[in-house]
Each structure stands twice: as C-alpha cells, then as structure tokens.
Amino acid sequence: MKTSITRNKKIVASAIWIIIWQLVSMIINQPLFLPSPFQTVAALFNIAKTTEFYLSLGSTLLRVLLSLFISSVIGISLGILSARYNLLKIFLEPLVSTIKSVPVISFIILILVYAHSTMVPIIVSVLLCIPIMYTNTQKGMLTIDNDLIEMAELHKVSKKKILTHIKIPAILHYILSALMICIGFTWKSVVTAEVLSAPLHSIGFNLYQAKIYIDMQSVFAWTLAIVILSIAIEKTAVNLIKNSKWKIGD
C-alpha cells in the first residue's frame, strides 16, 4: 500500500514537471531554443524510424553495460580485499582519492591520446565508477558482524552458508547503492566521452551532430532516450537483486 502511494506521488510529481516544461515552452514559443514535450516525443518517434537510432542506442548501451560490469567486478573485488588487508587499503587510498578529484573532461582528453575512440567512453566510465564501487563495498565489509560469524563457525556452519547467509546480505545494500549511483554516472560519462571522441553509431555522436546543425528537437529527443534507458536499467538492476536469493535486510 505504502509503495503504491509513493509510486503515485512520483507520477504526479513527474506530471507537474512536464506541465511546467510545456508552459515554459509555450511562453518562449521558440522550438529552436526549447521544444515542448510533445515536439520532443514526436522527434524521438521520427528518429526511432531510422536504422541509425537502433545502432547508436545498441552501441552506447553496450558500452554502458560493459563499463558497469567491469567497474563492478574490479571495485567490489578491491573493496573486499582492502577491507581484509589494511596494507592494500593504504596502498590504494592515494589512487582512489586522485581518481575522485580528477574532472571527467581531463580523463577523456588524456585517454583520447592513448586509446581508440570506441574504447574511450568505456575506459573513462570504468575509471570513474571503480572508486564508488570500491568505497561502498569496503564500508559494507566493515559492517559485517564478526561475532555472528564466530558463532556460526562455533556451531560448524559451512563457509558457503556463512558467505551466502551472513556476508553477502550484509554488503548487498551497499553494493546496490553504489550500483544505483554508477548507472546514472555511467550514462553521463559514456555519452560525454562519446560527444568528444565521436565514435560512429553512438548517442554522443548523434548529440554532437544535432548540436552542430542547431537541431534542438533532436538534442532533446536523444536526451529523452538516454533518460528512458537509464531508468529502465536502474529498475531492472533493483528488481534482479531484490528478487535474488540474497534478500536485502535478511
């Protein structure tokens, strides 16, 4: 019941913002500067009729998913290891702090020198998301109840059950939180890198082309496609984890 009420409130809030967008667009009355929601959706449907739309969507989506997978594997692994071995934590701390403080544009420019344009978005996104996954996993590991583990070992509970029933559920919430942050962050960094590295068949390249021709309806349409895909991936990730055998909070 509470979930349903919250969902309805979110729908109403979204509807209000769309109405505000429509009103502002009507006041300005210049689609060249601010297309209306209807014009944006119409432009998206027109773009969706082309083969380029699906090639670009597929290529960018593949980069996003690949970036999320790589950064999750590396970040979670390093987070677990650094929580167990303090020397590794001390060794990684300067590197993690440096990556966090470096602007996205700096990474893109640097990597453009050394990597092919198709790989730049993936490398940039992985570098930016690893610290998030690493830090959250590390925090989750530190919240594991060692007394509970000792008690389980005392009662001769298998290591597999200790892992699946105590350790994983304890850190799962932290990993999920990091994943939610990384999904939005990955979309932003991948598309930004695509705009600057301009790989063919990518959302970023099409945004850049639309900007050159001052086609704001296409800019808004491609942006809307990004938002829809990002939300879809986020919801899918949440549902997969919540419906898995490791229930958050169990």
Provide a quick synopsis of the model.
The protein has 250 residues and is mainly alpha-helical. It has ten helices and no strands.
Structural overview:
The chain has 250 residues and is mostly helical. Helix content is 83%, strand content 0%. It contains ten helices and no strands. Helix 2 (37-47) crosses helix 10, helix 6 runs antiparallel to helix 8 (159-197) and helix 9 packs antiparallel against helix 10 (216-242). The chain is globular. The mean pLDDT is 84.
Structural class: mainly alpha
Q: Outline the low-pLDDT stretches.
A: none
Strand content: under 5%
What portion of residues is helical?
over 70%
Largest sheet: none
Number of helical regions: 10
Number of E-type strands: 0
Query: What is the CA–CA distance across the termini?
Result: 21 Å
Q: How would the global form be characterised?
A: globular
Query: What is the CA-based Rg, rounded?
Result: 22 Å
Q: Could you tell me the mean pLDDT?
A: 84
**SSE pattern, N- to C-terminal:** HHHHHHHHHH
